[in-house]
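Forwarding the complex inputs:
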Amino acid sequence: MRKVFAMLFLAIIGFYLFNTFALIPFGKNKMNADVAASYLNSGVQKTGAVNIVTSIVVNYRGFDTLGEVTVLFLAATGMGALLFRKKPMQRSRQNASVIVKTGARILFPLIIILGVYVFVHGHLTPGGGFQGGAIIASGFLLMFMSYRTYKVNHKVLSLFETFAGTSFVLLGLFGLIWGTSFLANILPFGEANTLFSAGIIPLIYIAVGIKVGSELTAVLDTMLKTVK
Amino acid sequence: MILTILEIILVVVLIGAALLAVWYRDLVAAVIASSVVSLMLSIIFYILQAPDVALTEAAIGVGLTTIIFMIAIRKTKRFEE
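Prediction (whole assembly, two chains):
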């Protein structure tokens, strides 16, 4: 009985896969000719984002981005579950040198501002939520490295993470309610090439940036807590 | 012309560092070699006009991954048998 179900399932998947690939003429490079050109030619008018990469990641393939963020969330959660300790291990008391400490104190706010800049301007300049979040996490890493007693509050981190993840899903649902589909761009596009343009794309990228930044910081903190 | 020479140097360093990362028995050296791979790759991405990917590769490949591997090595063993 189970084998019959498995064969039926495979047949259904095979049927749809075959139908999809049958549409592409054999030996023709359909991707380069049609798909890429249509993104490049009509991307700005359709999404309002000047940065084509952002318009693909957040608008055309927004659902995939939600999946990616979920994967990162699961990885961080799994790491926290595997390395969980009731009493965090005492890290060595030796501090970094004065030069490193002073430099880190000066650079830390600048790095955070750079990260925020990168994800707020995701629809205008290269970069976006993932890059900005990684930059913010590397700023926290600098502080972890130079001050052995530097601590982050895990409750605040998970609060940020929850807020950002929920707002991403809520923005998608708003698109479903007032627009045509999940993550549909419901806000007005505004004038292209200005900060307040491209509808919900900047909002989603701000949410992704906060989420990635707090998740990676939590991962680093969990790793550092389990070593001497 | 200069760009071509630069690209060739970058690719050679990249492949060399990738081979070293596999060859080293000392895991700390292997992690440093793999971060060199990421650095070269990020510069190549920038030359090939993909600044978005270059940013990601620089922040994650060179920065965070290296440090996370280093912490993991400190927790476990440094030398591969």
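The mean pLDDT of chain B is 88.
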